Amino acid sequence: xxxxxxxxxxxxxxxxxxxxxxxxxxxxxxxxxxxxxxxxxxxxxxxxxxxxxxxxxxxxxxxxxxxxxxxxxxxxxxxxxxxxxxxxxxxxxxxxxxxxxxxxxxxxxxxxxxxxxxxxxxxxxxxxxxxxxxxxxxxxxxxxxxxxxxxxxxxxxxxxxxxxxxxxxxxxxxxxxxxxxxxxxxxxxxxxxxxxxxxxxxxxxxxxxxxxxxxxxxxxxxxxxxxxxxxxxxxxxxxxxxxxxxxxxxxxxxxxxxxxxxxxxxxxxxxxxxxxxxxxxxxxxxxxxxxxxxxxxxxxxxxxxxxxxxxxxxxxxxxxxxxxxxxxxxxxxxxxxxxxxxxxxxxxxxxxxxxxxxxxxxxxxxxxxxxxxxxxxxx
Length: 379
Known about the structure:
mainly beta, six-stranded antiparallel beta sheet, four-stranded antiparallel beta sheet, 31 strands, 10% helix
């Protein structure tokens, strides 16, 4: 009997066909397993768009009344029930409107507007808030003086750079964590990731090959000597999972640093492709683009914060409709995590939370002039 052998090209084609079939099968299975959906329904004068996103495990709603689209996110596990909103009530005062939602499955703060501009419930007049007393919050304001700090809220854990190290504000106390013997005014490459703050040894000149790692749980400081000399002409591209990504513009390189293991690797140099993350997905990027302009990671989140004309707004991941959060003149956003955002007004640090509204945290006179990358929130 003759033995037949397939040519290499035929084997490759056969393998490709098998892989394509497997990929199609997995894609079809994923479609049937996905819990994501969108549907439209009405309650009286309100048109409701109800959407569930299986990736973010959250419900997104748009409620339309008189051409105004009110929107909110509810981060809840999927339920087989649909049309989860049972009733909507409207409250008015002057040109302000607030809607409240009745549901057995989801909850949200009142959805408010003035003259078609969406805004936080905490910005509407007192008369309207009094009609909705169940949603009102009375913040507890402390008045603790420590050196040059005025502390108004002791429930937050905040690391503040203080030239030779960090002052750690927590539980109404201040604890100093020393890193250097001489004053260092700026620490632009310092990065917080998970329960670590990583700071280069800024006492070294031009380049650094040593970093300090602060464990934000224990406040222990350890030193990390690395095998590369990194220029201070660098920037932090972003963080992903347990890694920090740094671009050395002078030496045309990208690095990945893993603080909890004290390990790092050279991702790219010369003409090799670098790495960035777009909405938590890894994407290749030219090293030339990384080193000639400062790039940054984008993250998959339900909450986005922007400043326009010194006014703070939030918009949801699936929405282009921004919601005004504060009447104060905002200087910069310090940090955000889901529905919490921290920001500076002159020399005072504030926090906004959807359920609690705007809270004054700390006043420090130095922030009027120097504040870039000097405040780290431990949440």
